[in-house]
Specification:
elongated, 2 helices, mainly alpha, single chain, 58 residues
Length: 58
């Protein structure tokens, strides 16, 4: 579960960065900001999930 969330976060950030640097300079700044926001949210969710996983070992 935690590994899956981490992979999803990396994929989202990676795709957003690729789109953001594809040459559309007018659009790249909002896309990069969106990538940072999405990445930050994903990492926070990942951190919370890891905490819960550590507290509730299956």
């Amino acid at each position: 579960m935690c590994i899956a969330l981490f992979v999803v976060a990396l994929v989202l950030v990676g795709v957003s960065m690729v789109i953001g640097t594809a040459g559309w300079w007018q659009r790249s700044i909002p896309l990069c900001v969106a990538a940072l926001i999405i990445g930050t949210i994903a990492l926070v969710v990942l951190h919370i999930a890891e905490r819960r996983g550590a507290n509730h070992d299956d």
